[in-house]
């Protein structure tokens, strides 16, 4: 390349047979530049040299590592900033004396996460899920807790406690700030993938969508309580993305992260079974096996068995130990609210009947296989997540982050050739507005509006899937077969079965 910088041809290599041939790609081939034109500086010369090195015919080969893996390039670019922020949070002096931050953390869900991490560090195993042991660990850091019913119980799988152990090793306030910084990073990753799933091309439209996403009330609730809802929403979104690209094994691995809250898994598993997506189920099994191995390493088989015994009992605790039945944003929570009771036995038959209805609707909607890259798959996964929200026995307001997934997919599916399907757009607007209702369920209606909207969305999705015309396979543009990008990959060999 050294002989390219002393001629007047601006970097044309005379050894290339097509260097002197006229080119129609005047912006990509330096042969379009006049021979008597001399670059103004070395920077221009290097740019032209690089253009010619890639060449018109090599445009889609992505010969450099940075072009092949742009996401890693961005991560490497952001790494120094992330390290600087982490070092600042670790080194800045933060008072550890009782204060407003400590008091507010005592009333947030972060208290349970920190307790679980400290229990891992202390070597607690067989009695990890014993409520008396958990209460003793919480009162060690918050001695103002006097009643056992004030315990914020930790009912997550043991591998979640292992994740919190490094944060729990730090002082309370510093650990919370670092955990919040980690959550902000996950939120930004979620936002980037969510915007990529939207059919919005203009920069102004994407900025508006980003503002709506960041002002969605569950975002603030997740940050305040130090919850894991960003991870759950990201896992659900990436599961759809991998299914949409035909990579079912990876989709199953992402779906395994919903085991953070195991009650979220049965509905997606049912849909995958009906669709006969065995590779996705295999990936899910592999992911669960890894997480199960971590859990056994943390609490042992006896501790894991205690957890499995405690989970069913939690539904009968009433309004104790951090369980608030009437605040659940699910069909079960709606029944608790309408009947004004915390007694699980009073709502059990109606709740189970509702779960059966949701299951039957999803089985009916999923009876025809949804091919990758089709509107049917987007609708099916949107309905699946709506079914998760309605049927789950335990789902708080911050867990409504999951609804970002069907929101993006419904907007994606609503774009027809001639017009928008406003029946699919309406639930998205209603979810956003309903979240701005008071944190307590609206007293006038005595019900959770989000549950009603999710049920309506599930019904609309099922109807659209039942009446949808078959989608023909779409051929990719020349040179773009197998392209990787933020959107779904284009398939040519798989066509959706006819309705």
What is this structure's SSE topology?
Elements: H1 42-54, H2 65-68, H3 70-91, H4 100-106, H5 110-121, H6 131-141, H7 158-168, H8 172-197, H9 203-214, H10 217-225, H11 229-244, H12 248-255, H13 266-275, H14 278-314, H15 331-339, H16 344-365, H17 375-391, H18 404-414, H19 422-435, H20 449-467
Explained architecture:
The protein is mainly α and about 500 residues long. It has two domains: about 1-60, no CATH class; about 175-465, no CATH class. Helices cover about 60% and strands about 0% of the residues. The chain has 20 helices and no strands. About 35% of the residues are buried. The model is unreliable at about 1-40, about 45-75, about 90-100 and about 475-499 (pLDDT under 50).
Write a brief structural summary.
The protein is an all-alpha fold and 499 residues long. It is 58% helix and 0% strand.
What is the straight-line distance between the termini? 59 Å
What is the typical, i.e. mean, pLDDT?
78
The whole-angstrom Rg is: 27 Å
Helix/strand structural class? mainly alpha
Tally of helical segments? 20
The topology string of helices and strands comes to HHHHHHHHHHHHHHHHHHHH
Number of strands: 0
Helix content: 55-70%
Largest sheet: none
The domain count comes to 2
- Residue fraction in strands: under 5%
Which spans of ≥5 residues are poorly predicted at pLDDT below 50? 1-41, 43-73, 88-98, 473-499
Oligomer: single chain
Shape: globular
